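Sequence, please.
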């Protein structure tokens, strides 16, 4: 599935701001999600990874990789 050209342009336009704030975004995302759906933290996510920040880092990396592919779809993947 590909994004619409309009969605791709939004990603390109917001990439610098999102990239600059990615740690703040992921630090806020999980507490808000778990406050709204506590069963997710209990049943789905590893609490140790949450406390150590590993889950937040993984989300940040996934967002960055997705955005990079939208900007440069032919770029080689980074491991």
């Amino acid at each position: 599935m590909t994004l619409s050209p309009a969605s791709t342009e939004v990603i390109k336009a917001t990439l610098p701001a999102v990239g600059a704030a990615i740690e703040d975004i992921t630090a806020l995302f999980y507490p808000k999600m778990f406050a709204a759906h506590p069963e997710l933290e209990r049943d789905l996510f590893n609490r140790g990874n949450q406390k150590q920040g590993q889950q937040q880092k993984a989300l940040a990396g996934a967002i960055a990789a997705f955005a990079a592919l939208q900007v440069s779809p032919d770029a080689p993947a980074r491991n």
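The first helix runs from residue 5 to 36.
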